[in-house]
């Protein structure tokens, strides 16, 4: 494929020829100059009449597409705040619970605490790699002051957990938690701190949230998207969670992960600030766009999570 690129004017002309309506051509051209045609097209794919050769359904407008785009943008901003809250708390819970139980700061090197020895070795090497390439002053200072530091092995001087875990990626933390032995009371305690009874359920949620974090961090859309993994329903806590479990299709939709984020933020912080922001966005947007495209059910406001 080696197509000729279209100018902004040609992009607008093509959309108009296919039946898209424009209220302000100048504004539309300005928006297409800073938001690529290819990026926007995924917000109008369901507005195309399948019985035609790519023509839009009647009354499809550029303004309608931009309302969807702006909803997606605003949702990603709120959810990234939620993920930050959870990620910071997750680090603290791992460091505090595991370090206290071990009585030392090098417990992360102890393979006996982990289910899979090979995955543990991979985790430690990833952890040390991330520490070595970190731009944090404390990481650079540690390496400078410890000539016996060895970033590619278990040997040498190793920083305490509260230092090295501080620069670990969310994905690395997620894999580490998943590989902790299931019988460790600390693993269950961390899940309990986030309002979940099961460390298995919490591990699933954290893994999915890590995927969502990567999507948002790269400014990719959530609109009309299916994630690569399914989020699990949880047991108990019906007074703060959902009365109706996610369907198999909903488990891969952004709404399911949004619910998990709202629940975890409230559990770990005691605040409803994230819930209130998401709820307000859903309420205002539902009047102008089909928010069910991210998996939101019709009766979402009746669920305990949103009260």
Beta-strand percent range? under 5%
Q: List how many beta strands DSSP finds.
A: 0
Overall pLDDT score: 95
Q: Can you tell me the residue ranges where pLDDT is under 50 for at least 5 consecutive residues? A: none
Organism: Phocaeicola dorei DSM 17855
Protein name: Abi-like protein
InterPro entries: Abi_system_AbiD/AbiF-like
Q: How are the elements arranged and paired?
A:
Blueprint (H helix, E strand, L loop, with lengths): L7 H10 L7 H10 L2 H4 L21 H41 L14 H16 L4 H9 L15 H4 L5 H10 L5 H9 L5 H19 L36 H16 L3 H13 L22
Helix pairs in contact: 1-2, 4-9, 4-10, 4-11, 4-12, 5-8, 8-10, 9-10, 10-11, 11-12
List keywords for this structure.
Abi-like protein; Abi_system_AbiD/AbiF-like; 307 residues; 2 domains; 0% strand; 12 helices; mainly alpha
Describe the structure.
Helix 4 crosses helix 11. The longest helix is centred in the N-terminal third of the chain and has 41 residues. The model has no long low-confidence stretch (mean pLDDT 95). It is built from twelve helices and no strands. It has two domains: 53 residues, no CATH class; 238 residues, no CATH class. The protein is an all-alpha fold. Pfam families: Abi_2 (PF07751). This is Abi-like protein. InterPro entries: Abi_system_AbiD/AbiF-like. It comes from Phocaeicola dorei DSM 17855.
């Amino acid at each position: 494929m080696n197509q000729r690129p279209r100018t902004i004017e040609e992009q607008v002309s093509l959309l108009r020829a296919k039946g898209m309506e424009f209220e302000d051509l100048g504004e539309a051209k300005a928006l297409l100059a800073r938001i690529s045609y290819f990026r926007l097209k995924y917000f109008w794919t369901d507005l195309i009449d399948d019985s035609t050769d790519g023509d839009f359904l009647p009354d499809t407008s550029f303004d309608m597409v931009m309302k969807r785009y702006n909803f997606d943008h605003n949702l990603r901003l709120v959810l990234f705040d939620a993920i930050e809250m959870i990620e910071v708390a997750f680090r603290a819970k791992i460091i505090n619970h595991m370090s206290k139980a071990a009585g030392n700061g090098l417990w992360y090197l102890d393979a006996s605490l982990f289910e899979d020895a090979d995955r543990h070795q991979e985790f430690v090497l990833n952890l040390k790699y991330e520490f070595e390439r970190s731009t944090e002053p404390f990481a650079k200072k540690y390496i400078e002051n410890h000539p016996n530091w060895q970033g590619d092995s278990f040997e040498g001087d190793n920083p305490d957990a509260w230092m090295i875990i501080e620069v670990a990626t969310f994905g690395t933390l997620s894999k580490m938690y998943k590989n902790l032995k299931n019988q460790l009371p600390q693993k269950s305690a961390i899940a309990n701190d986030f309002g979940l009874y099961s460390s298995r359920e919490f591990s699933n949620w954290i893994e999915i949230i890590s995927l969502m974090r990567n999507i948002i961090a790269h400014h990719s859309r959530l609109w009309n998207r299916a994630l690569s993994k399914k989020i699990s329903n949880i047991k108990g806590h019906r007074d703060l969670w959902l009365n109706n479990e996610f369907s198999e299709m909903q488990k891969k939709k952004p709404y399911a992960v949004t619910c998990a984020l709202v629940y975890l933020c409230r559990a770990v912080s005691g605040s409803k600030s994230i819930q209130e922001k998401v709820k307000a966005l859903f309420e205002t947007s539902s009047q102008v766009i089909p928010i069910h495209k991210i998996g939101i059910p019709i009766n979402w406001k009746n669920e305990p999570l949103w009260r």
